């Protein structure tokens, strides 16, 4: 049995309100889902726009302008929801004003200069396509840097469909002047069904995108140090165990460097713990900026940092640690307007066949102790006399 267009439009409206209310309800069940709330508001706005389209034949052209405006504003709200979910700080307000302004210019031109209601409708759908295309582009860029790109790519795919359908319809349709047939607002039944289906699937994909974002946040909290942003102790030790297993399989070596901020207790005692936190953040930033892209830095505890240097032998590991030590000594740490001279000591250890993580960490810790005992602000290699193999820095203390 064939279903007429009016019935499908009513189903689309009911679907929009249902999806919108479901999305809003989800935000009360799960904290941190404000993007989904905006998405739900936008979907409900689409339902309102379609409802106004149905009333247009009875109420006249002014109501149609309200419906078109509601449609574009709703899409912009949904676009903003996607930006919030993806962590974007920009709300694209200027973009929204330009798109809606462009549509209004089209309405005025084809309403008074060259009257053609169908072209007015085309101006609306063209603006909607621009919003969908821009949102798809931002989603694609987000997917490239996300650990879980599949949800963003799925939403981007549906946005591309939303962008292309009106453009293809405009190109294929014969344009004539005269009153706007209400059926043209919806299209044939297949097109109406297509819109409802895409709206439903995309809403499910947006919820998937939000869930993946929350999962990524939880995962980061479990592996990232809150203060410095580098790996936390559990994560860096886990990575060390993985690198040791890889070194064992490949019959290679893995080196580590254990850094400790010199005289850090004096910083806390003199300027307070907030100043100490700033020093720790600064040290992490300087070390992280001096290492190779495939080395990994983690906060081992307190003012100690562990640097993984996979594939490097003793000489390469000492050189990497010395590069970081020298960078900290050379650069200036400013805390609340005060210039502090910060130095670090480091102990370096290289794995041998069959060595486990605990043994390697103990060797690095012993070397770090030797570095501190021999004057600080230096790098010492494990199981060697500090005077013979240490990469010496200036022995001045902070």
Structure write-up:
The chain has 14 helices and 8 strands. By secondary structure, the chain is of the alpha+beta class. The protein folds into 2 domains: 5-223, Rhopdopsin 7-helix transmembrane proteins, CATH 1.20.1070; 233-392, Alpha-Beta Plaits. Strand 6 (344-350), helix 13 (357-373) and strand 7 (378-381) form a beta-alpha-beta unit. Helix 2 (34-59) runs antiparallel to helix 3 (61-85) and helix 5 (117-145) packs antiparallel against helix 6. The longest helix has 35 residues, at 189-223.
Core attributes:
398 residues, alpha+beta, Alpha-Beta Plaits, two-stranded antiparallel sheet, 8 strands, 10% strand
Largest sheet: 6 strands, mixed
Structural class: alpha+beta
CATH class of the largest domain: Mainly Alpha
- Overall geometric form: elongated
- How many helix segments? 14
Strand order of the largest sheet: 2-3-1-6-7-8
Q: What is the CATH architecture term of the largest domain?
A: Up-down Bundle
Which stretches are poorly predicted, pLDDT < 50 over at least 5 residues?
384-398
**Whole-number radius of gyration?**
31 Å
β-strand percent reads 5-15%
Question: What's the helical proportion of residues?
Answer: 55-70%
């Amino acid at each position: 049995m064939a279903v007429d267009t009016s019935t499908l439009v009513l189903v689309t409206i009911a679907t929009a309100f249902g999806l919108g209310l479901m999305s809003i309800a989800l935000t009360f069940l799960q904290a941190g889902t404000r993007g989904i709330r905006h998405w739900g508001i936008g979907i409900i706005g689409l339902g309102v726009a379609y409802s106004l389209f149905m009333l247009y034949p009875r109420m006249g052209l002014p109501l149609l302008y309200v419906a078109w405006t509601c449609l574009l504003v709703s899409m912009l709200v949904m676009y903003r929801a996607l930006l919030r979910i993806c962590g974007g700080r920009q709300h694209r307000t200027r973009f929204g004003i330009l798109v809606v302004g462009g549509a209004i210019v089209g309405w005025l031109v084809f309403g008074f200069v060259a009257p053609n209601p169908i072209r007015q409708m085309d101006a609306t759908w063209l603006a909607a396509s621009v919003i969908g295309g821009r949102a798809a582009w931002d989603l694609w860029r987000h997917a490239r840097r996300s650990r879980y790109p599949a949800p963003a790519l799925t939403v981007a795919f549906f946005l591309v469909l939303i962008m292309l359908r009106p453009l293809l319809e405009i190109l294929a349709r014969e344009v004539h002047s005269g009153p706007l047939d209400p059926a043209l607002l919806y299209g044939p039944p297949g097109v109406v069904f297509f819109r409802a289906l895409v709206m439903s699937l995309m809403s499910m994909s947006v919820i998937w995108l939000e869930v993946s974002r929350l999962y990524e946040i939880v995962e980061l909290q479990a592996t990232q140090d809150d203060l410095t942003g580098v790996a936390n102790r559990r994560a860096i030790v886990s990575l060390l165990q993985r690198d040791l297993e890889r070194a064992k399989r490949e019959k290679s070596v893995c080196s580590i460097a254990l850094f400790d901020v010199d005289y850090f207790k004096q910083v806390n005692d003199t300027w307070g713990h907030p100043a100490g936190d700033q020093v720790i953040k600064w040290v992490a930033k300087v070390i992280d900026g001096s290492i190779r892209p495939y080395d990994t830095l983690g906060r081992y505890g307190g003012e100690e940092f562990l640097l993984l240097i996979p594939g490097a032998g003793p000489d390469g590991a000492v050189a990497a640690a010395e590069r970081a030590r020298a960078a900290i000594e050379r650069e200036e740490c400013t805390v609340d307007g005060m210039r502090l001279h910060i130095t670090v000591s480091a102990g370096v250890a290289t794995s041998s066949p069959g060595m486990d993580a605990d043994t390697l960490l103990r060797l690095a810790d012993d070397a770090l102790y030797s570095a501190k005992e021999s004057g600080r602000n230096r790098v010492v290699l494990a199981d060697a006399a500090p005077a013979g193999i240490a990469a010496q820095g200036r022995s001045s203390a902070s």
